[in-house]
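User: Structure tokens for both sequences below?

Assistant:
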Amino acid sequence: MKKRQHKKVENKQRAATGIEPEPKTREDLPLHFRSASFEVRAPEGDNPGQVVMTVSSEEPVMTYMEFNDQYQRVYEVLDHSESSVDMSRMSDGLVIQDTHWGDQVGLMGATLKERKIGGPVTFCSGTRAKEIEQDALTNCAAT
């Protein structure tokens, strides 16, 4: 029962201050997602439009690491030097999903360039994949 009350107190503190309490266990850690950037190339003549994405870079991301039996906030920076990236894992392309754990909607021809991993996306033929492709090509190209 005390554990439940403790959780309620933490939730009230979070609501009142907007500050997340320091995690006590691995299960308490919030999920962090890296961001992806993309460029939309509008159709020109016979060439269809194209979506080019960057999915990994050396941009620092706030995360948690265990140190001295406590989880602490740290910035994680991924090394993108050629000797640090195993490109064989991407030789058949990288799967693009509609959400973090979602369905595959495309495949990226990934390359390592300027210490970033990215490339053009070939969208799948399914309804959801075509919907996302159309949204990217029409809505994003207009902005």
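Moving on to the next sequence.
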Amino acid sequence: MKTHISIFITIVFLLLAGIFTYEIVSVVKIKGGTVAEKDRMTKDFIKDFNNEIAKLEYYPNKDDIIIYIRKRHKNIPDKTAKAIAKNILLASEKYKIDFGLILGVIEVESGFNPSAKSSAGAIGLMQVMPSVWCKPFGIKDYKDFYGIATNIDCGTRVLKKYICRENGNVVSALKAYNGTASNKFSDKVLIATAKFITSVRILRDDKPGKSCNNR
């Protein structure tokens, strides 16, 4: 009987994961849709997903993030993955931004590599621009942006700034964050977020405590 219940739960998770993945991919692949339409649908997806989590009393935690990072990026050391997961949750709580969105930005920007540096000079996990943000954030040495805690905190702070500036429009905020008029970056981030969400639903069937809040 117990085995049958486990199988049933697994099937339900797989079905829900497929539905959620389809929804998020549909959101970011709309052809000819306005930014406002895309953002509205993205918010609807996040709202629906959080409602499902609430029903199941399931709350992704730090271990879920670590497992996701290690499975998708095997070259990232355990110590680094743990530090990234810890600081994603801290920044999420501090700036009131969904941790899945922060994780998506990090995966797209740097592939979870704290030493990443772009040709434009952006550095670290969230590819923060020292030339732009050192002075406003009171950072004296640009190398501090290579630190996991500093980079995630500052990167999330920048993301929050743009979300507020764009009146909560996530797609527009991601465009501003990346400094582009294209939807390519925002699409990648939302898809990365969806992959994390579905991986959690498929791989785990227990119900850990409320170690973090979903927004």
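User: Anything stand out in the second?

Assistant: Residues 2-32, 53-58, 205-215 have pLDDT under 50 and may be disordered.
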